[in-house]
From TrEMBL:
One of its GO terms (cellular component) is plasma membrane. It comes from Myceligenerans xiligouense. The chain crosses the membrane at residues 43-66, 106-126, 147-171, 183-204, 216-232, 262-283, 320-339, 371-392, 421-440, 460-481, 488-508, 528-551. This is ABC-2 type transport system permease protein. It comes from the Bacteria. GO terms for molecular function: ABC-type transporter activity. Keywords: Membrane, Transmembrane, Transmembrane helix.
Length: 559
């Protein structure tokens, strides 16, 4: 007679013994190949956009810093509290060339972009797969418990490595002032900082039971560390002790193109290793499908207000809206505090620099309105990206099979699809209002009152239909061509290039017409053209009608 040992109820059997370690990684190579094949398009676009932005900004800065006077004015701007908060601690201002300007101005933003990519990648291939039960099917084959997580981390490392190498080569090729060694240090440090947040997302994927919770917690950590770095750098020149609690600061402290030192990168490497070990320990002891923190028990019966598809859409989107609103409010409030110093910082540069005149404006007296126009464009594009993501929530529901279950009930397609679009549109509107009024609040907090609250309110009214057009366009594409939804992201990239550098590139007039923001007036310079606003609303209505028509006519699932 044989006996079978059974683990106590409620406790998973550990997988960490030395004799069993190899079996927990079985199938890692196949999982790596699967992830690379599955995400090949996504990886390509992330890599292409980030790598191309490096030489692009190098060329732009090379034009902006064309003479000694421009370099001095730009160096002075790098030491202002607002620029330190948004960029970095301001190394190399004594001899401000393209290299230090690139590191001080754009490293933070490259870290943010790559960190978001890293968080989404890790959660997508760990907690999201487990939540959808696909991991359970995969593990039914010869695949170890830790193989999916290890594969996610290794593929993320590979992607960040490729981006770092290509970015360094692109930077050094774009300007003779940028040495290859410093370029490698800056790109590698940025990639390692992004990997820290990817490793943190791996831990949160073990702690929480839902992918939205893991993503939200990871993005919250990203925001907190951004604020810590900004607050620490403002407290003391070149960073204070508070700065060192943030991976953002570790990259800046490498001092690329100024006084290169490699040892701060070891902080990122050590943190990544610790987070991966912690994640492996939690994953070995928790129940598969569950999290370290169990979900609290809910009501026996749902409230009447949660009985419809509108409430379900709100539940699915509310956490993303909350975290984005918090992040945007903090980011643009800090930006608003910089508004009073724009004329002093860029006045001489606008007069003498053709590139700066093309970006901000030709009249030195209108520097602040020009600066606000650039800020509103960039912030609106971020909000438009949120709108596209939320507009594609029905695609995620359809791909996961939940749409079929919902529509099997006495629930019409129009009502189900419309609920998702309505909540996405409301969230997009809220983010635009938060962004614009945060800019006003930041400027008002430092005594700036040249632009009135009514003008900021007009900015919300003017930009809203243009921002929503990205959402309705993505919804229409999904309804008719669900496999071509990436076109929405191409529209965002195109609009950014046209809106910020269109005049400098001297493109034909018709190229501007494609951008929704081309039809928005410069609200801080002239009155809003309500005819153009009405036309944008009309286009939104047409796209919504097309979206509903296409979704009602096609098969489900079609993705």
């Amino acid at each position: 007679m044989s006996a079978v040992a059974v683990a106590p109820a409620g406790r998973a059997t550990p997988d960490v013994g030395i004799t069993r370690f190899g079996s927990t990684l079985t199938g890692t190579g196949r999982m790596i190949r699967f992830i690379l094949r599955r995400d090949r398009v996504r990886i390509f676009w992330w890599t292409a956009i980030v790598v191309l932005l490096y030489p692009y900004y190098v060329v732009v800065l090379d034009g902006l810093l064309a003479d000694a006077e421009s370099r001095q004015e730009w160096a002075l701007s790098a030491t202002t509290p607002g620029m330190i908060a948004m960029g970095g601690p301001g190394y190399g201002t004594d001899d401000y060339t393209v290299g230090p300007a690139l590191a001080n101005t754009y490293v933070t933003w490259f870290i943010l972009a790559l960190a978001v990519m890293s968080i989404l990648h890790v959660v997508r291939h760990t907690r999201a797969e487990e939540e959808s039960s696909r991991s359970e099917l995969v593990r039914g084959s010869v695949v170890g418990r830790h193989a999916p997580a290890v594969a996610a981390v290794l593929t993320l490392l590979l992607v960040n490595l490729v981006i770092a190498v290509l970015s360094a080569l692109a930077m050094s090729a774009a300007s003779d002032e940028l040495g290859l060694t410093d370029s490698i240090a800056m790109a590698a440090g940025t990639g390692l900082a992004a990997m820290v947040f990817g490793a943190a997302a791996l831990v949160f994927s073990q702690v929480t039971e839902h992918s939205r919770g893991a993503t939200g917690a990871s993005l919250a950590l990203l925001l907190v560390t951004f604020v810590l770095r900004a607050a620490g750098d403002i407290q003391e020149q070149h960073g204070s002790a508070l700065s060192w609690f943030s991976p953002f600061a570790w990259v800046h402290q490498m001092r690329a193109f100024v006084d290169l030192r490699w040892w701060p990168a070891a902080l990122s490497v050590g943190t990544i290793v610790v987070l991966i070990v912690v994640s492996a320990g939690i994953a070995s002891r928790r129940d598969f499908g569950g999290g370290l923190i169990a979900s609290r028990a809910g009501r026996a019966d749902a409230r009447a207000s949660l009985a419809g598809p509108l409430a379900m859409a709100w539940i699915q989107q509310r956490m993303a809206l909350m975290w984005c609103a918090l992040g945007f409010a903090s980011l643009w409030f800090l930006t608003g505090t910089m508004i009073p110093s724009m004329t002093e910082i860029f006045g001489g540069m606008v007069e003498d620099n053709e590139v700066m005149r093309a970006v901000i404006g030709t009249d030195p007296a209108n520097i602040v309105p020009g600066f606000l126009g650039v800020v509103l464009l960039e912030s609106s594009l971020m909000i438009a990206a949120y709108g596209i993501v939320m507009a594609l929530r029905p695609k995620a529901e359809e791909a996961a099979g939940r749409a079929e279950i919902a529509l099997a009930r006495p629930l019409g397609r129009t009502r189900w699809f419309g609920s998702q679009i309505v909540v996405a549109a409301v969230g997009t509107t809220v983010l635009l209002a938060v962004t614009v009024y945060a800019l006003w609040g930041g400027a008002a907090s430092v005594g700036w009152d040249d632009q009135t609250f009514e003008q900021y309110s007009e900015a919300v009214a003017g930009y809203l239909p243009a921002v929503l057009l990205f959402l309705t366009f993505a919804a229409a594409v999904f309804a008719w061509l669900p496999r071509a939804t990436g076109v929405g992201w191409f529209l965002i990239a195109y609009t950014f290039m046209i809106g910020v550098f269109g005049e400098a590139m001297d493109l034909p007039d018709w190229a501007d017409y494609i951008s929704p923001f081309h039809w928005v007036q410069e609200v801080f310079v002239e009155d809003i053209d309500w005819t153009s606003v009405g036309a944008l609303w009309a286009v939104n209505v047409v796209l919504v009608l097309l979206a509903f028509l296409g979704f009602r006519r096609r098969d489900i699932p079609a993705v």
